[in-house]
Amino acid sequence: MQYEYLTIPELATELGQRARAFRLRKRLDQAEVAELAGISRRTVSFLEQGKGSSVETLLRVMKAMGALDGLSSLFPPAPAIDPVAMLGRPSAPSRIYKKRSLRG
Hints:
This protein is mostly helical. It has a domain at 3-69: 434 Repressor (Amino-terminal Domain), CATH 1.10.260. 49% of the residues lie in helices and 0% in strands. The protein contains five helices and no strands. α1 packs across α3, α2 packs across α3 (41-49) and α2 crosses α4 (55-64). The radius of gyration is 26 Å and the shape is elongated. The protein starts with 7 loop residues before the first helix and ends in a 16-residue tail after the last helix.
């Protein structure tokens, strides 16, 4: 899916649908997730509908369902080797030339 073409409400709906699908795979109902997350069942329902949820609500639900590993894919870390930085570095010589002495 190409998320860059979706509106913010469409993205919220997509996120809610994914949260609901994950909850169902874990065989949890909304009341169980709400209790584990320390929020109301209605708040879980709103999140799953893509309606007015906060980042805190999302994180509470993710934590309650054991889905915090998914955070690592939200904003991937910088690569260990920065290809742009490599362009500015002088390259190692491909061959070392030695001067010959002129002996007779």
